[in-house]
Specification:
By secondary structure, the protein is α+β, with helices and mostly antiparallel strands. It has three helices and five strands, in the order H-H-E-E-E-E-E-H. The chain has helices at 6-13, 19-23, 80-91, and strands at 28-30, 36-37, 45-48, 56-59, 69-71. It comes from Lysobacter hankyongensis.
Amino acid sequence: MNQHDPTLKAAHDRSSLHRAEVLASVICGCFYCRSTFEPGDIGEWVDAAEDGDGLGQTALCPHCGVDSVLGSQSGYPITPEFLATMHQYWFG
């Protein structure tokens, strides 16, 4: 996968407003700090839903606090290689 692969842009779209997807995942990864963790480790969510429930919908990484979290239910691999490729593309 190269830096111009549209898959990287599509994966980035899955890193926000994804609470249900992340909570249904087995493993999550942050493409900023490249750590992996379980969904239950996430303690902070932002982007509160407009429906008034007050629950944040975008996960913040429990290790670095950045909103660059993908869950395994996103369909993208939560591997060191994929997280590094995403990091290089978005934060290079």
